Each structure stands twice: as structure tokens, then as C-alpha cells.
UniProtKB/TrEMBL annotation:
This is Futalosine hydrolase. The keyword Hydrolase applies. It catalyses: futalosine + H2O = dehypoxanthine futalosine + hypoxanthine. It holds the Pfam family PNP_UDP_1. Belongs to the PNP/UDP phosphorylase family. Futalosine hydrolase subfamily. Catalyzes the hydrolysis of futalosine (FL) to dehypoxanthine futalosine (DHFL) and hypoxanthine, a step in the biosynthesis of menaquinone (MK, vitamin K2). One of its GO terms (molecular function) is hydrolase activity. Keywords: Hydrolase, Menaquinone biosynthesis. SUPFAM superfamilies: Purine and uridine phosphorylases. Pathway: Quinol/quinone metabolism; menaquinone biosynthesis. CDD domains: futalosine_nucleosidase_MqnB. Residues 17-219 form the Nucleoside phosphorylase domain.
Length: 247
């Protein structure tokens, strides 16, 4: 991090980086924040700079769909910016009955669900296979503060590379991940990149659809984006930063 960094503004503390997948999610997050500035292009996507009501600098990056795009985008932002915290955010599929459409979920574990191998005994994740990790655990104080302020459920959120499209797959994921609340496609990528920079990471999702048999017409993306906007208007930003900087 140097003064030559292409997207660092002198004198501006960028406390929080929010990584979403698509521009519609970035717009929803930014609608929840009172002040913004023009977006800057980064190699990882468009970086929007905003300020929360309590003065916290919040940068919002639309980094693309899927864990690889999310990891790459997050790394480009973290390489040049000063962030105390990274949040993966956006819409998600919710596991019934714990995460209904329109509800908010905060990850107490960010778990990649399909990184591993099929074996005669069933799926084995990469940790069981002896390399890598499949789980990042956000700071508990961060999870409690965010979930408490938003009235959100807290629990595991899965990252998948393929949207679940059957009751069988939904049941298999729920069996393998007790208490799972939601699945989305970016959280683990964001958390992997953040871990490499030593920056704490969390995940906040608004549920747009149930996890289960494919029914694209049943997705309530507008409702979820509305919930996302309200969440980013209500988050206690200074408290979140305090949780990750002072414990
Ligand atoms: O309908 C499809 O064929 C399809 C294939 C790939 C991606 C999509 C998306 O619209 C996902 C975009 C975005 O939304 C998140 N998301 C929302 N619901 C789910 C879900 O049930 N499972 C996984 N991801 C979901 C995800 O994080 C993506 O960024 C549609």
C-alpha cells in the first residue's frame, strides 16, 4: 500500500470494502448509504466510494459472479486500499424454513460446498483430502453485531459454483452442513482473498429464492435487493469496525 496506489485518496480512511457480484447489487447497497462518489474502474470491477451516516468510508465493488471472480476482484481492491474489514454481500438462496424470501442472513461460517472430490464413500472436501480449507469463520463479535442490528439470522452460508436446482441436492447440502441458512456464489472467494491480506471477512445476504427445485420465476430479486438496501442503511458501521480492530 503506497501513496502511488491508483485508487487511494489521500486523507480518506477506507474502513469497509463491500464486494457484491453484479451492478444491481452494488446499486442496492449504495442506495442504503447517504453519500457517494463516482465509481473508479479497477482490474477487478467498478469500485464505488460511499460514506455511511456515521462517517465510515464504505467502498463497494461489483466483482462478478462466482468464487473465482470474487476472489480476484477482492484481491485487486485489497492490494491497493486500506480496509479493516471486507464483506461479501448480495442476494442468495435460502434454506427453508430458516431463511425465507426477503430475510437477511449473516454468515457465522463461510463454507465452500463443492470443493473436493467424489469418492466411493461420497463427497470428500479438500480439507478431508489433506489440503486447503473449506471454511472461514468471521469474527464472532462482528457476526453478533451485524445480526443483532439487522434482526438477521446467523449461521453457515455456503458458496457454490452451481446454483442448486433439485430437492435432492438441497437435502444433501442441508445434511452435510447442519444449520445452513443460505447458498450464494461468492463468499468463499472473498474470504480466501481477504485471508491472504490478513483482513477479516464477513458475509451478509438477502434471500431472493428458496434453495431447491429450479423455479427461476419464483425468484424475488426485487424484494431481496430492497432488503439489502435497508440492511446497508441500518448497519452499525463503527461498531463493526470496532469489533474487528479491538476485538
Ligand atoms: O438461473 C440461472 O441459470 C443462474 C445461473 C447462474 C447464476 C444465476 C444467478 O442469478 C446468480 C446470481 C447471483 O445471485 C446469488 N444467488 C442468488 N440465489 C442463489 C442460489 O439459490 N444459489 C446460488 N447463488 C444464488 C449468487 O451469489 C450470484 O451472485 C442464475
Amino acid at each position: 500500500m503506497t501513496e502511488r496506489s491508483p485508487h487511494k485518496q489521500p486523507g480518506r480512511e477506507a474502513g469497509l470494502l463491500v464486494v457484491v457480484a453484479v451492478p444491481a447489487e452494488a446499486d442496492a447497497v449504495l442506495r442504503g448509504l447517504p453519500a457517494g462518489a463516482p465509481a473508479e474502474p479497477l482490474p477487478g470491477g467498478l469500485l464505488h466510494r460511499a460514506v455511511a451516516a456515521d462517517g465510515t468510508a464504505v467502498d463497494v465493488l461489483a466483482g462478478g459472479v462466482g468464487p473465482a471472480a470474487a476472489a480476484a476482484a477482492t484481491a485487486t481492491a485489497l492490494a491497493g486500499g486500506r480496509y479493516a474489514l471486507v464483506l461479501s454481500a448480495g442476494i442468495a438462496g435460502g434454506f427453508a424454513p430458516r431463511a425465507p424470501i426477503g430475510s437477511l442472513v449473516v454468515a457465522d461460517a463461510i463454507v465452500v460446498a463443492d470443493l473436493g472430490a467424489e469418492t466411493p464413500e461420497g463427497f470428500a472436501d479438500v480439507t478431508e483430502l489433506g489440503f486447503g480449507t473449506v471454511r472461514h469463520v468471521p469474527p464472532p463479535g462482528l457476526v453478533a453485531a451485524a445480526a443483532g442490528a439487522l434482526g438477521a439470522a446467523a449461521g453457515p452460508v455456503l458458496t457454490v459454483s452451481t446454483v442448486t436446482g433439485s430437492a435432492e441436492r438441497a437435502a444433501a447440502l442441508a445434511d452435510r452442513h447442519p444449520g445452513v441458512l443460505a447458498e450464494a456464489m461468492e463468499g468463499f472467494g472473498v474470504a480466501e482473498a481477504a485471508a491472504r491480506f490478513g483482513v477479516p471477512a464477513g458475509e451478509l445476504r438477502a434471500v431472493s429464492n428458496p434453495v431447491g427445485p429450479r423455479d427461476r420465476a419464483a425468484w424475488r430479486i426485487g424484494e431481496a435487493l430492497g432488503a439489502l438496501e435497508r440492511a446497508f442503511a441500518a448497519l452499525p458501521y463503527q461498531r463493526l469496525l470496532k469489533e474487528v480492530t479491538h476485538g
